[in-house]
Fold:
Amino acid sequence: MAEATKIQYTAKDFKSDQEVRWCPGCGDHAILASIQKALAELGIPKEKYAFVSGIGCSSRFPYYMNAYGFHGIHGRASAIASGVKVANPDLMVWQITGDGDALAIGGNHFIHIIRRNIDINLVLFNNEIYGLTKGQYSPTSHKGIVTKTSPYGTIEEPFKVGELVIGANGRFFARTADYNLTLSTDVYKQAANFRGTSVVEVLQNCVIFNDGIHDSILDKEVRDDRTIVLRHGEPMIFGKERDKGIILDGLKLKVVKLGENGVTEKDLLIHDAHEPNPGIHYMLAGMKYPDYPVAMGIIRAVESQTYDSALVEQIAKVKEKAQIKCVDDLLHSGSTWEV
Amino acid sequence: MHIGYKKNILLQNKTSNKTQSIMGKRSQVIERDAVVIRFSGDSGDGMQLTGTLFSNASALFGNDLATFPDYPAEIRAPQGTVGGVSGFQVNIGHKEINTPGDYADVLVAMNPAAIRANAKWLRKGATIIYDSDNFTEKNFLKAGYKDDPFVEDGLNDNNLIAAPIATLVKEALKDMDMDPKTVQKTKNMFALGIVFWLFDRDLENTELYIDDKFKKKKPLIADANKIVLRAGYYYAETVEALNSSFKINPAPIAKGTYRNITGNTATAWGLIAAAEKAGLNLFIGSYPITPATGILEDLAARKDLGVKSFQAEDEIAGICTTLGASFAGNLGVTSTSGPGLALKSEAIGLGVMAELPIVIVDVQRGGPSTGLPTKTEQSDLFQALYGRNGESPVVVIAASTPSDCFNYSFKAAKIALEHMTPVILLTDGYLANGSEPWRIPSMKDMPEIKPPIAKYEGKEFLPYERDVETLVRKWAIPGTFGLEHRIGGLEKTIKGTVSYIPENHEKMTQLREDKVQRIEVPDLKVFGESKGDLLVIGWGGTYGHILTAVSEMREEGYDISAVHFNYIKPLPKNTAEIFANYKKLVVCELNGGQFVNYLRMKHQQFNYHQYNKVQGLPFTVEEIKDYCTILLEGKKNG
Ligand code: SF4
Structure:
């Protein structure tokens, strides 16, 4: 199979012949483009990719990728993806999901795939709404939101994806925004190269049912002051004028202005995505406007043994010493007698 | 195939004497075709092990046998109560044995609750060996007796053997440095020793087993168990002996290498065998549930054969990981019981739509809801056939004995892989935990399994393109160059494109059904005459009881025959042809009448009688015979 070695791809190579059916202007289009671009740059043979999804607008994604794809059932993508990866560890498995799919109906599978650290890339499109069922609140909708199923406003607190990931002993968590092709492509590539469950939360705009939900932080005018792009090894600086930063004040994070009260760049926290202790990562993942800028980029990336590789190793180890080498051996093992 | 007693030899000792002390050097030996022994005590008394060891010794001796463990759902119900009684029944024979037996000839009762639980399951004149140390007034009350259990339950005419087991083990182990609690834990071995003498069984293999289990880590326990086992044996022989013992000659069974096997282990091993034959990796995604857990455990132990076992976070993840594994090119299986099958319904539908090969093993138990977790029933048949949204055909097959769970799990996998479809294999609590000797097959004699794996042919792969004969689609395994494709739960065209076109949906629905109906399954075989007065119809785990009942009635001169179904969907092609040859048809099953109604729908031209039982228990041979006798109006041949 000489063709298999052809790994010079462009984003176009990953476009399937299916007509893309998301609403015009939906953030999903941009996410599709950045993942296709990331894949082209990764240079892994196309047949090694398997895209798994659940149900929801985001979950149509596999149909639009020229790769192996399995469109599952609501909430179960993490479980299906776990099976794909464990059964066939040579594949690079991507799970595409949404806030309802992963955190409501699929919450159990979501925390367990993270706990097990199965080596897949999980991209969660967070638009804080149910789009496919036409506009009901989701587990990430902010408290008080008025939707078709909360005409008087919701009375429940939302999940923050990053806190949930880290709470489930997550090793990789990143955040990006649908429109930001450069940041997104970089984040997807790093997620792909990370061994373990890499969760990427994409702040995604649903133009139809929750338009502008992320505008308070992502609008062109304000985004530089209300978000911070974290880079491993670099001080935590942000702001249009790059004049703000984050320090550790006692047990809490604090936003400071450079030059004010004698604060210099040296006082700022240096982002260490590889620190195993999740304390700071948890705080970074939970930062919320207006008290803090919202953290973007790779917040946590701490490699440890993956479930799939541990299983392969365990099997190899048991096989080495095994008395039973085939089913005939098995059937004759233990106590048997001749008649 | 007849099972029963040599009519001229009856149990001769009917004296009622709780403290008899006759010297008994096998003064009387009673020869029998078959004897049923039941070990019964608190769930902490080790009755399952005792029963298993006795069964193994009998198998080694050459008897045919069938066992049935029967335990409470609670791990440790209050001591001494009927709710906490754990039993193990074994039927050993010099002839072919197909059931664990209706009524016990010998009961080992470790406490009064064991008498209460088993009083109505004793054959008249049965021998009861009991731990008299435990037969105190306090324990009578716990078991719900006011006074002497034997008087209250009218058992005084039985052959009662009182053995002060607690005292005797204390005595036997007095020189060992052991705490009293540990000493008392060996009581089951004493009881086993008595039974070994009673049936003239060799102690050696059991001693080897004890050594194997304990010698390394707990040498003291190993020695204590062996001492007590012998103490029980010698006690029976010399001190306070039974005045007769049984002789069950070896059964004339086919030559070969044998082992004992339970239904759950046979199921697990059949799946591994199928994976080996198909040249695929085996993946099991499963969640612990009684009485199916043993399958997951047995497969988890088989890393040596490369089995990938995945204990999922719930039943749904069990099947969804299995679907993922199947999509990725493994033989994907999941095991469960009724409530778990309910949770898996939606995902089975995805398997139907995506046309992926998976095996779902449902070890049926009493339902609905949590029902009777440790008891047996056949009430998931409708759930297996119909318990999904939409028109959702799957193959449904059922195993009929503990050992043939191996063949049917193998066949379930073969059908799933060769026909690209989910297959539900129904077993039940009775098969799962029951065991019987099994002639070990050779893998070279097992049929080939050839999954339709797609190869790159230089053109676009169409996931729903079908074989014109079988309607089976091809399996394109991710990682294969050029076969990239998308499948999923939405209705598709042949190309895998999502389609809402009405005609396409109807056509695909029909194709999915036809694909299942076109699967070739073996014809039914009649046991008995090719035509006659009454045909007894059964399916799945009731095989042994129905066969025994029908063969006994045939020997008694009735015109009665039987057929047994292992293939439920699709049904064997000769079903109607066979049914037409009998004046009366009766369907016997352990539910409210699910299979009979399925047959009424599929073959409406016949009039079906039905005999149902929903007690969480297997049929007894007697009740089947009684009902069939009524249907035959007592009329024998000629
Ligand atoms: S409903 Fe919202 S999320 Fe769904 S496709 Fe339309 S814009 Fe996108």
Remarks:
- Chain A touches chain B through 61 residues (CB under 8 Å).
- The mean pLDDT of chain A is 96.
- Residues A 22-23, 26, 28, 57, 127, 131, 206-209 surround iron/sulfur cluster (CB under 6 Å).
